[in-house]
Protein 1
Amino acid sequence: CTAMQGLQNSDRLLIKGAKIVNDDQSFCADIYMEDGVIKQIGENLIVPGGVKTIDAHGRMLMPGGIDVHTRFQMPDRGMTSADDFYQGTRAALAGGTTMIIDHVVPEPGVSLMSAFDQWREWADSKSCCDYSLHVDITEWHKGIQEEMETLVKDHGVNSFLVYLAYKDVFQLTDSQVYEVFGVIRDLGAIAQVHAENGDIVAEEQRRILEQGITGPEGHVLSRPEEVEAEAVNRSVTVANQTNCPLYITKVMSKSAADVIAQARKKGTVVYGEPITASLGTDGSHYWSKNWAKAAAYVTSPPLSPDPTTPDYLNSLLSCGDLQVTGSAHCPFNTSQRAVGKDDFSLIPEGVNGTEERMSLIWDKCVVTGKMDENQFVAVTSTNAAKIFNLYPRKGRISVGSDADLVLWDPDITKIISAKSHNSTVEYNIFEGTEVRGGPLVVISQGKIVLEDGNLHTTEGSGRYVARKPFPDYVYKRIKARSRLAELRGVPRGLYDGPVCEVSVTPKTMTPASSAKTSPAKQPSQPVRNLHQSGFSLSGAQIDDNVPRRNTQRIVAPPGGRANITSLG
Amino acid sequence: MKYCLTLDRLLIKGGRIVNDDQSFCADIYMEDGLIKQIGDNLIVPGGVKTIEANGKMVIPGGIDIHTHFQMPYRGTTTVDDFTQGSKAALAGGTTMIVDHVIPEPGSSLIEAYDQWRQWADEKACCDYSLHVDVTHWNDSVKQEVNTLIKDKGVNSFQVYMAYKDYYQMSNSELYEIFTFLAENGGIAQVHAENGEIIAEEQARMLQMGITGPEGHVLSRPEELEAEAVFRAITIASQTNCPLYVTRVMSKSAADIISQARKKGNVVFGEPITASLGTDGTHYWSKNWAKAASFVTSPPLSPDPTTPDYLNTLLASGDLNVTGSAHCTFSVAQKAIGKDDFTQIPEGVNGVEERMALIWDKAVVRTGKMDENMFVAVTSTNAAKILNLYPRKGRIAVGSDADLVIWDSDSVHTITAKTHNSAAEYNVFEGMELRGAPLVVICQGKIVLEDGTMHATSGVGRFIPCSPFPDFAYKRVKARKQLAVLRAVPRGMYDGPVSEFSPMSRGGTPSASARTSPTKQPVRNLHQSGFSLAGPPTPDDIPIRPAGRRIVVPPGGRSNITSLS
């Protein structure tokens, strides 16, 4: 095809003089890509003549962003969220994000497969960038388990989200969550959780409405951050019991983030996803006198009214306690929000953020010195690719990786406004925020989609990217723990003493509580969180006939012995 | 007639009186079961019986805030009835117990209460009060709770987060119960374990062929206790209800309580004799009967450092009050579960050992707490929480004459051979403890002297507990006044409204068919520095100032100077 080289446009591309930024290091090199894949990295590359060349002038070239959480054209009670896959992915690309992972939300009663097919169809026809899909588990029975297996084995899904909120609609019980986590672990997938205590939220919603509070402030008043932290804590507990990797979507508050950070310090395999909104703004706007503006901030868990929250979450993102960022982009326009004009609990939920995510994190974290450019790449792209098993095809600049790249300008400043954003909604929750840092050139599938401020996207060019189960980044540890935690019964002689007669009424616990058979098919794989304790749970006592503790132990007083000497 | 007087008038001379706030030397004169005078050179009637304390400590009699005497269980009854149980209590220096009334789910709370009153009135050898467990929830239960608070002298109610499909309450029910108790001045007690996960884990253990007592603790890991404590605290905080966590058995559960207290939650934690004195390694004993005797819920932690840790938190005030959860079964009764650990009746001994054990572990051998703190955690704090203070829990003029002369140095070894319980096993078997009661005085009468018990069945009185104990409710009331929610005054939205199908989505505001009992808005405002009801910034100004903010980098600026 060398004869055709004069016609080459975007399929072959050379970027010269870039500072390549991965999550582990930055270095200067040229980069050549062809057919959507990075072919060469280095200096003095031998490339076909006439190839389109971009001179980076030493600017940073980084892996395109991965927005791990979007909800484009999401159905809600007969309405659809305002940005469809075309408008949504255009906004993503405009902000430097070259891949999105959307959530399939099956209505309870609808099969996972048909919902998945529906989302594929929507995205394949409209998406302008590569995409993948999480599937939400909105009800639980045996059939769902089989569909999950099919989705993992044949359709490239490795993450499922369960809801601890939305009582009587999406919410699962603790037992169901336990069973779902067991299935997810056996399949090698990631358990995602929408963490809010739906029972308490329902009670609080009723109480707030009874008091005559019907506006958007009722949304946040009925969903205090404690209720989010509680649900995070509970899902961490269930994940530990089932030895299942956990991923908390939409970390919105300091207390929820703290619970995640503490659990990680205790060894739990858990990841936290703050979103553009929680990193960039706060919940004081729910008290806005402008109803439409206040309603534009409605999302769940809500933005925290504590104005120090964004800074705190950005700090945890920088130190690694939170790992990955999405946008949960799911905006509705004002007339859609107005469905809840007399009752905040009916306001459709979701905020914008897919376009603003990268710039906002750069501005809040890198410009302030909380993180460096490599950590920036980690939290906007690489970690997501690792958790969801897309690495190193996505999330890294290396030979063989997809040519999804962003040439980043760290100094460009802009003021975010609904007037200029790519979303179709009337309000932007970051309105008026000035951010420093933004994409200069965006390359998706080896083609330039943003240059000189102009978008050149192609509707339907986005490919579905299948994801394999058992991502190493997550499952190496899970597998090791599964092997370690073998439980054994104590070998004892049969008890042959007297046995009291009892009435047949069942006592306290009912071990076979769930009528469904437990889907944990491998009872030989007992799991226990042994790494947290220094003692063995299976050790037999040799000294059982010897009275214990008949000698005095020497016990250090609390606070240690430090001041004994000074007293003596 | 004065020579006929024996035990109704009593003088203790030369004792060192120990209350929770101070210790001082004085004589004590009591009459008709009350302390009448405290001081030196008291003027008392002639011929009164006098005890020479010889400088030994005189402390308020212990209050065991958690017992299950004579508890019905599937047609049988725990082996220690109110006589046996209260005798064991007195033998250990405890002069009041608070027992749990457990109504069968579906049955009347008042009837169960009356039944317990009858049992205890007949048999108790010391004063007692009652907690009532709420094992199901509906409007008629609510009425009964109201009656119990207003007319029956009960101010504390326990709910269960475990025992799925039996006692267990849903989160919504907990919310409603807590709301109701907060309005009526009750204390919400919780048995904190996640019953849903336990049921799953039990099924898994049995499937794996683990049927012995070790399965009990393996299916109830301490994380499930900590999780439930966390959840209960969240709900109590939402409803502004004082919370009391019974049976704190693990380090992680205790940590959650102490963290919550640091955040301002009104929550009290009750470790029990067993969790303060022994651990869960015995579940792996080769002797089935011995292993089964340790079965209680939440289980004893297999982590052997747990007792020491809980004693430390008790000493530091992070945990406040101690009970025994004394609930003993014979080996034959435990053997109901010989082939299936989930069928083993649950409960351990501890009412007799509680005081000596805490003295030994926390005072004499470690110096973790002083004698005043010892009085606080064994007696005074319980009296305050139950609104019995200063009638109980303090040595003061007018208080009940429930006293213990404490011998801080006597040493004895615990064994089932000599204990006052009827059970064959003692979970503290072989432990050598320093500290014991020398004389126990209950209702102004000597019930233990020279190692001999003089207890009388049926003399124990029911002590009614009134609602709104200051110790818990002063703070709760203040917060209630603070947390008034206001709606934002806005004009009507009059723009276009999308068509939508009215199928229910998201949160269903009227999830529970019952009406919410809430009237007062409550919010945990003390935790945050910003006002939830406050007016926000004006709307037409851009939210964020366009200028750059100066942000301190994480870790502070300390090494900037060293770099420059």
Note: The mean pLDDT of chain A is 89.
Protein 2
Amino acid sequence: MKVEIDSFSGYRIYPSKGKLFVRGDSKVFRFAGSKNASLFLQRKNPRKIAWTQVYRRMHKKGITEEVAKKRSRKTVKHQRGIVGADLAAIAAKRNQTAAVRSQQRLAAITKAKSEKKDKETKKVKPTARPAGASGPKVSKQQMKGGKGGR
Amino acid sequence: MRTLVGTNMNLQGASLSSVSVGSTHKSTRPTRHYSRRVRIGMIGLKSTLNCIDNSGALVVECVNILKNKVTNGWGSVGDEIVCVVKRARPVSAATQASVNAVKVRRGDVRRAVIVRTRKNVRRPDGSVIRFDDNAAVLLNNKREMLGTRIGGLVSADLRMKGWGKIVSLAPKVV
């Protein structure tokens, strides 16, 4: 047995209760009792009748408070890698300890100094070694600073 | 839901059935033996019905309810009636020649079966159904339909009264 719902008030209609009204346009309306039927035939709007389910839902009476609370929007921040530096590299860099960083800095400074020295010695004897290997082949980027790398 | 709260044999001093759903003792009042005569239907003499098949009639007026021995009876869904065609669709000469559906004219006396009533009709499961108008489908003397199609919905009570053919032709049955 199917328990229907009232077309006017949203109440439940158990078997052998209520009336079924078929309108001229073949639309079926079920009423749980004469109260609902009468109000419907008087063409009352259930949205304005305070005890109907339609009204309660519209004015958010009763259960719908919980539903409204659940829907709190939260934007989640994601860590993303970029083209130059993927996520792992960024994480690695961030998690370096201060000691490691200072070491790297020192290393970079000494490296730069040595490279500069080499360059100067190269300049002093340009003719002596015309087209030879001009010091260790270093790229411009490396000279500028080894720390800022990939 | 009624539950049987023990049988009469279980009744002792301190009664167990404090929550008895139905009284287990017979009432002292005399029970009524007459059955209230239920007035279903309500199509009688001079009642107009819409004709919802394609026989050409639009409005028919009831003249007689065939199940009743007297003329002051009421007909309901599934009852056969004798009726007069009060309004009919105009019949052109071309359609007269076609063999399909017999086209009735105004003033014809025909039989019909009631398929919808504005008065409530009760079903065996206790439900009640009511339509917005009274409607009928024309028949010939042998209980066969005159038209070939039905436009609109019919009551499902027709099937119980033995008009399965009409129910099968109807586009919607409620």
Note: Chain A has six helices and four strands.
